Amino acid sequence: MALALIVLAVAGFAAGVQNALAGGGSFLTFPSLLFAGLDPRAANITSTIALFPGQVSTGLAGRRYVGGTARLPFKALFGISLAGGLLGAFLLLATPPSVFARLVPWLILFATLVFAWGSFFRRPGADATARLGAAGSALAQFAIAIYGGYFGGGIGILMLAALTLAGMQVRSAGATKNVLAGVMNSSAVLVFLFSHEVHWLPAAVLGVTAILGGLTGAWLLRRVNEKLLRVAIIAIGVALTIAMFLRQ
Q: CB–CB of 52/19 below 8 Å?
């Protein structure tokens, strides 16, 4: 039991850092909960509950960088994320997660490629017509929010891709997606909070260490060189894609 708690603590801290920088922390907490003896469904529910406080604290820590896109204000992104998260949570109650689970590696791969293109291959002189407009940004965020409320793996990478494609700087996009991820997951948390499948001791260990990791990640987000940050995000996306394909 002691070894399992140590593994959970390390996974929680690493997941908090990863969520703050790019997302995908659940891919660390989920297997650590399986290692601790939880079944897959309970691990998924417990992971969602455990990571939520870290998402809130990370979003608050980086709030000075939070904003909207050039054509879509943050309030609109907030409302879209809340509505999509609610819809995704209801879909989770009505349908099995197997279909979305099979799509996860492809979604992360696509998002990573889009982010890499926007970061290093888009022509410097490309004008705003090459970016997502208000309608495109809204539709992309709504689709990501539905997915976030339903399953959630890789929503950070997907939002970074969508927000940077809409013209946001990567530092602001990173801080904004941290807040919006918390908004999306709040719906799932309300659904799962009173579930008998939540294991509270593992959730507490993961939750506390994820908060510490999230604050560390938010600190790094403000100080890491932007080019290095883009490279790190792409590397995380590639690693997540490979890991998710191997799990299938």
A: no
